[in-house]
Specification:
Two copies of one chain form a homodimer. By secondary structure, chain A is mostly helical. Helix content of chain A is 74%, strand content 0%. Chain A has a single domain, classed as Tetracycline Repressor, domain 2. Chain A contains ten helices and no strands. In chain A, helix 1 packs antiparallel against helix 5, helix 2 crosses helix 5 and helix 3 packs across helix 4. Chains A and B meet through helix 7, helix 9 and helix 10 of A and helix 7, helix 9 and helix 10 of B. The structure holds a DNA duplex.
DNA sequence: TTTATTAAGTAAGTGTTACTCACTCTTTCC
DNA sequence: GGAAAGAGTGAGTAACACTTACTTAATAAA
């Protein structure tokens, strides 16, 4: 059952990205933006620059993407799928709801630290796009990520490992918000994330509280 | 001593906004952007629109502001000063570090819920501006807000009300991150924030942890 | 009161940039 | 072989942020 679920998941995430035979121009465009995002922020990257880096004409971008932002969403989607795969892999075999949450926190911190381009897109670049929340990247990946956490919380409540007197959605928001807020300054000021100690501090706070 | 500090703060926050005699055109521009931000997001507001709403010419914007973003930062600065004043007022007379943190959380949730324009600027619009972090609004207000929280945490640790084995900065990030993440969907999807229950849930989580 | 100086505000640009459209070349497949 | 669909081009455009040279109004010194 679990195995089946994983295979379903796997094909689900891989479908859009690598399996389907996509036109080479499209791949080149996506790769070009990824490269450029390593050097400068999205707003200061021009479509002309993307085209030049990709070795195609500007017009081609608009054959495959609705607009510049849409291209960004697609890049995010691709990177997000990889992240979710890794996270679920890390999660495998972990027992107990709190340990599972710890695993997710650690995986996320690690991934955010390693995949700076991905993290900057997710935490800073797409935030102010109202239509990001209608995009595949959001509807598919972000929600999936949230759902994984929610399921663990509900499981934890059912097994009496997590208190019942807090709204599960707020617990989820505390976890996600804390993680993001720990990573944000690191991403913006290009500092590294101390994954292990940050995981420890976050879990200690979220699991046991700050009260002496 | 405390009184002196408050007076200093007060004049500090008011200095930029209301006290100084600013040219009417400047005020009209700031007011115009505030109005427009109530209706649409920053990126889809044009400088021409701002000028027209303000009843001045486009060029005047660039007499008083470096660029369109800088104008946004100034608007945020103004609104942030008001927020800090209110927050400190709410905090007055509250005893105990945890109660103080609760007060801050509640004030923030309330203000975020009421001042949608302010909150949208702060949580979504300025995030992807690399130079926001060099702006007055950040260097003065955001840091001030963080510092207030940090001081309370340190006080709490000193008085044995808050555990010593978590990095104070992480505690601060958990608080700020949680609050922001609770408010973000409400701001984006224009839902109202249930201030009291959210405050309760957040405090319960952060103070006592989610572990049963 | 005159004159010099600074500040407030204007009007007409300009360069850049995201995006479009009509077209060609290439592949696929009956 | 030919048609239909897909991949890719390149010239062009409208919109937009921002500039610059200028005018008008207020301030202050002589």
């Amino acid at each position: 059952m679990l195995l089946v679920k994983r295979i379903v998941r796997h094909t689900k995430y891989m479908a859009k990205t690598s399996t389907k035979k996509l036109p080479p121009g499209r791949l080149k465009i996506v790769r070009a933006l990824k490269t450029l995002l390593g050097k400068k922020d999205f707003n200061s990257i021009t479509t002309a620059e993307i085209a030049k880096t990709a070795g195609v004409t500007e017009g081609l971008i608009y054959k495959y993407f609705n607009d510049k932002r849409d291209l960004l969403f697609k890049v995010l989607l691709e990177l997000f799928e990889q992240f979710l795969l890794q996270m679920e892999k890390d999660l495998k075999g972990v027992e107990g709801s709190l340990n599972k949450l710890r695993s997710i926190i650690q995986s996320t911190l690690f991934w955010y630290d390693q995949q700076r381009v991905f993290t900057r897109i997710l935490l800073v670049e797409v935030r102010n796009s109202p239509d990001f929340f209608k995009s595949e990247a959001y509807q598919q990946c972000v929600r999936d990520y949230s759902k994984i956490i929610m399921d663990i919380i509900h499981e934890g409540i059912g097994l009496d490992e997590i208190r019942k007197d807090i709204k599960p959605s707020v617990i989820r928001q505390v976890i996600q918000g804390s993680v993001e807020h720990v990573c944000l300054p690191a991403i913006i000021f290009n500092r590294e994330i101390a994954v292990e100690p940050a995981t420890e501090d976050l879990c200690r706070t979220i699991f046991f509280g700050i009260k002496q």
